[in-house]
Each structure stands twice: as C-alpha cells, then as structure tokens.
Specification:
This protein has about 425 residues and is of the alpha/beta class. The chain contains 11 helices and 16 strands. The protein has a 6-stranded parallel beta sheet, with helices on both faces. The chain has a 6-stranded mixed beta sheet with strand order 7-6-10-11-13-15, with helices on both faces. Strands 8-9 form a two-stranded antiparallel sheet. It is globular and about 55 Å long. The two termini are about 15 Å apart.
Length: about 425
C-alpha cells in the first residue's frame, strides 16, 4: 500500500426523511432492494476546510446527486460524522477528509448493511494494512492527471520562469496533485530544454508547502510571488482563497491562478443547467438538523492500459477546439476575483451519483473505484481568454498529452496513488 498523506467546522447542510431506510438488509443484498426510494446518500465531513475538494463542495454534490436520483440525503461533520450518519439510517456514506478513515472503517465493520467510500485516499488499518470489505471502497480521484496538464500549460505560459504550488492538508489527494503539477512542469522542461522552476514542492523529498488556513495559504503564496512566481496553483479547498488574496495584492497584471476546487456548477454549462432548475448552483444548500459530531515512480512511461477511451473533452486546446461549456462561468470567475489561467474540475455530482447507483446495485468495494480524465469526471477546464495567449505549439502539445493520458499511453504516476487502483 502506498503511503497516505483539510480551518473551521462545517454546519449541517442537508437533512431529509429517513423513513424506509434499508438498515437491516444482509451484507450480500444490495443496499436498496426497490430502488432509490430507500437509499439515503450521506456526506461525512471533517472539521478542516483545507482538504483538496472542500467540505461544502462534497455536501452540495451529495445533496444534488440524491435529488437527481430521487433519494434522500444527509450531512454531518466532526470526527465521528460517519458513525452518527450510520446511526441515523444512511445507506451510503461518502467522505473526502482522510482524517475520517478510522471512523469509516468502524462503520463498515459495525454496519455491514451500510456502504462507505473515501474519496482520494486508501482505506487502511491502524498498522497501514489494506482494509478490504464488500461494503467499503477507496475512490481514486486522479487529480494528478489534470494537474500534470496544468503544470505543463503553466510552464509554457509563465512570464517569469517561476511557478508556485501550495497545498492545504497533508493527505494523498492534495500531495498527489502537487506532485502531478511539478511533473508536468518537468515534462515541459525536458521537452523544451527550459528550466522553469516550481516553488512549494520538492520532488525528491515528496513534500511541499502546506497550510491549513486561508491566512496560511496567503502567506505561502505571497512568499512565492516575492520570489518571482506569476502562476500559482493552490490545492487547499476553501483555504485556497488565501492564494487569490495574495495574487490580488501582488499588483502584477500578468499573474494568474490555477484553481483546483471547481465542480460542474462552476462551468458555463453547469450554471446554465442550474438556472433551468435541473441542478443546484454552487454553494446552495437546504437547512437541516444539527449534526452529531461525533525514489517516486516516473511519469511519462509508455504503457498499455485497460482503461476505456476518453469520451469527454478536457478543455485543453484552442478556443475553437474546446467546448465553450468547459470554460468557467462569469459567476465563478467573479468569486475567485483574480485572473484564472485554467483549473482542475472534479465533477463531484456525477461521481457521487455513480457511487450511489453502485451502492443501490450492491457494487461497492473492495476494489478501488477510479475516476480520471479518461471518463471526464476529472479534467482541466478551458483557458477562456488566456487561450489567445497560447502558442500553437503549446496548444498542440497539450492536446497530444491529454489524448495520451486518456488512452493510457502516458501514465501520470505519483507516490500517493492508490496501490491497487492503477492500470484498472
């Protein structure tokens, strides 16, 4: 098993009726025997908002996915959030904060009729041993693939020759994305004979700049800007706002940010769907009850893969080649408040809906579940106005790299990947 490596509590965002919950079904029986009318999809949130995905994004995705499936949803926060949700009748509990791993495992052990899933981290016991149960799944979100493309793009567009990356939580998802970004920059340097440097990540020590609060992220980003960084990628969930503040204060009109916490509703298409009432806009939530608290592998190797061919656009390429829907909405850009080069988009609503459907069919665990650029659940957003500044060569390179990653010809591997998920 590869090693694993997110400020403030989060109030309960959603609550729903739990009547008819399938809490007494045997383990071999699908969680819902009649369909989504008996499913209760739940989000377990930690008390640290600096994890890569951010707790509000997960809570919103769970609520939206449950609504789209006609299921109930519930959200709780705190170190025993999963336990409280299991006791409340949830049939599927999803967490992204890896500090909740032990609580998820306890639920899986004590409630064989409840499915649990950890986004972006491996489920392991107290001694680091693999944890395998039919009702528990580790979910491999390959942010590193989109981060690799982001790093390559940033290397090709920097005006100072210096880039920065700062993370929030000391976990596998965060550091895998930071490493993927640095690998993308390294690939550009090897291809072009340049020496673009990355501040905030040491590829040999496999560690970098981490800060668990917006103030901490701002301080780290400001230091990088002072050293010449003009493009910064924060991987710190809600604390990433600190990097936006640092860039705004820099006074550099060419400074850009690469965002990492965006979801479907932050894209133009997502905003349009939300406006039609088919999906909730980012940050929306219903009120609810108070919760019970309760050396690294090298990328770029030629390799075969069983992964399916890509069916979704990743947004890489010139404006005329990219789908306009892959560009960020003006509302999102206004919320960020500084020029955005591009961003890593995680389609959490689709991921949660897929996990819920797997749970209903009795198909959760024990093998890792992979979401990547190939299936479009993780991808790089469009470059919008910045596309006009991209050279034809950079555009062509990014398109080719995306296609190689999606086909499995180019493996973006980091020391933080889930051991059993790769090459599936």
């Amino acid at each position: 098993m590869n090693k694993q490596m997110m400020a403030g509590g989060v109030a309960v965002l959603a609550a729903a009726s739990l009547s008819g919950c399938a809490s007494n079904l045997p383990q071999s029986t699908p969680t819902s025997v009649t369909g989504t009318d008996r499913a209760v999809v739940c989000a377990a949130l930690g008390e640290d908002g600096a994890e890569a995905l951010g707790p509000r994004a997960l809570a919103d995705a769970v609520e939206a996915a449950a609504e789209s499936l006609g299921a109930d949803s519930r959200t709780a926060s705190g170190p025993k959030a999963a336990t409280s949700l299991a006791d409340a009748g949830c049939t599927l509990i999803i967490a992204a904060d890896q500090s909740l791993t032990a609580d998820l495992i306890a639920v899986a052990d004590e409630h064989p009729d409840v499915d649990v899933a950890l986004l972006g981290g491996a489920l392991s016991g107290p001694q680091g041993e693999d944890y395998r149960r039919d009702n528990a799944a580790a979910v491999d979100l390959r942010l590193s693939e989109a981060a690799y493309l982001a790093g390559y793009a940033a290397a090709g567009m920097t005006t100072t020759g210096t880039l920065g990356v700062v993370g929030g939580t000391d976990d596998a998802l965060t550091q895998g994305a930071m490493d993927g970004f640095a690998q993308g920059v390294d690939a550009y340097n090897r291809s072009k004979g340049t020496s673009i440097r990355v501040l905030g990540w040491d590829p040999l020590a496999l560690s970098g700049a981490l800060a668990s609060t917006a103030d901490g992220v701002e301080a780290a980003a400001a230091e990088m800007i002072a050293e010449g960084a003009d493009i910064i990628m924060p991987v710190a969930g809600e604390a990433s706002a600190g990097a936006f503040s640092a860039l705004a204060a820099s006074g550099n009109p060419l400074a850009r940010v690469i965002t990492t916490g965006a979801t479907t509703t932050d894209l133009r298409a997502g905003q349009a769907v939300a406006a039609d009432g088919d999906a909730q806009s980012a940050g929306s939530a219903q009120s609810g009850e108070t919760a019970q608290s309760g050396p690294a592998p090298q990328s770029g190797d030629e390799a075969g893969s069983d992964r399916s061919d890509a069916t979704a656009q990743s947004g890489v390429g010139p404006r005329e080649e990219a789908q306009a829907d892959d560009d960020f909405s003006q509302d999102y850009l206004d919320r960020v408040g500084v020029p955005v080069l591009t961003g890593i988009v995680t389609r959490l609503d689709e991921i949660v809906a897929d996990l819920a459907e797997r749970s209903i069919r009795g198909e959760i665990g024990p093998d890792p579940i992979v979401y990547s650029t190939a299936d479009g659940r993780v991808h790089l957003a469009g470059f919008a106005d910045a596309a006009a500044l991209m050279s034809p060569e950079l555009t062509s390179d990014l398109t080719a790299l995306r296609e190689r990653i999606d086909s499995g010809d180019l493996i973006v591997a980091t020391a933080f990947d889930l051991a059993d998920a790769d090459r599936k």
